[in-house]
Amino acid sequence: MIMRIKTGIIGFDTIIGGGYRPNTVNVVVGASGTGKTIFSLQFLLKGIENGERGIYISFDMDTKAVMILAESLGWDRLITAMENAELMVTRSYAESISYLNEDIINYIEKSTDGNTRIVIDSFTPLISSPDFGVRRDINWFFDQLRANGTCVITVEEPFSESLAKPDTVLPVFLSDSAVYMKNIGYGEAFSRTIQVIKHRASWHMEGVFPYRILPGLGIVVESDLEYAKGVEDISPILTKFKLDKGIESKLRFLAKKEIPVSRALIERVLKIYESENK
Asked: Is 90 exceeded by the pLDDT of residue 60?
């Protein structure tokens, strides 16, 4: 089974199949104020707690600003990590992806051991041109990031709330996973929501999930934990149905992957399968 990179975001790993895949680029899209930076720092904090190193590259925040945010959340361990150089924080002044490539990649390669958590916050200023010709540069940059660790990249949601613009669609398309954080303002319980747009080569839950930002805990996603108890022993179900080897092997593969699907759901699927193959 593939090892998963735990994000440290309570409830989020449940909806993405246990965490990020190693050596992947994972995009977080959202408007200002949705918690993208907190998401990123929470991801780094989990790595620090696991004895990993972290790199945080920002175009807005310097070390002092990151420390102030960490202090407001009660994350003293993150502050200590910055002081001890377990977490490297740098503010970049690059104006486009073409300027960023060599300088930032060289910095990352010198600061990582190949298994480092990396954050780029935010990637949007680097796509200065709406020309899709920047795709090659972004693709190359993402490949270098994958070679050096597991990365979270934040992208600003356009004011039009359309995710089809090049400065949003290119990073989302070229990434390994992407989530959409949104502040919809429907009241306390559903004021903020998160949705998995894609998770390449990995199962993920469908739907929109509310989340809160709490002091000390950071982002907490209210995923359906009842639904995510995990696959139980499916052998009793298989004996109830006349199955060919094809569908049986697919079900056993599902169980082997430990994807959180209930026995009741499997049984409903098999009833449909049986009715279609009488």
From this structure: no
> Token match 């669609």: residue?
169
Number of domains the chain contains? 2
pLDDT of 96 reads: 60
Q: Which domain holds residue 253?
A: 235-276
In this predicted structure, the answer to whether residue 167 has a pLDDT above a threshold of 90 is: no
Residue 5 lies in a domain: no
Residue 258: which pLDDT band, with cuts at 50, 70 and 90?
low
157 and 182 fall within a common domain: yes
Alpha-carbon span 42 to 78, nearest angstrom: 9
In a domain, 255, yes or no: yes
Asked whether residue 32 falls in the same domain as residue 138, the answer is yes
| The pLDDT value given to residue 228 | 43
pTM of the model: 0.84
DSSP string, the chain: ----B----BTHHHHTTSSBPSS-EEEEEE-TTSSHHHHHHHHHHHHHHTT--EEEEESS--HHHHHHHHHHHT-HHHHHHHHTTSEEEEE----SHHHHHHHHHHHHHHH--SSEEEEEE--GGG--S--GGGHHHHHHHHHHHHHHEEEEEEEEPPTT--TTSHHHHHHHHHSSEEEEEEE--S-STTSEEEEEEEETTS----SEEEEEEETTTEEEE---TTTTS-----HHHHTTS---HHHHHHHHHHHHTT----HHHHHHHHHHHHHHT-
Same domain, 208 and 239: no
Q: Do 252 and 135 fall into the same domain?
A: no
**Which band of pLDDT confidence, cut at 50, 70 and 90, is reported for residue 111?**
confident
Q: Are residues 196 and 265 in the same domain?
A: no
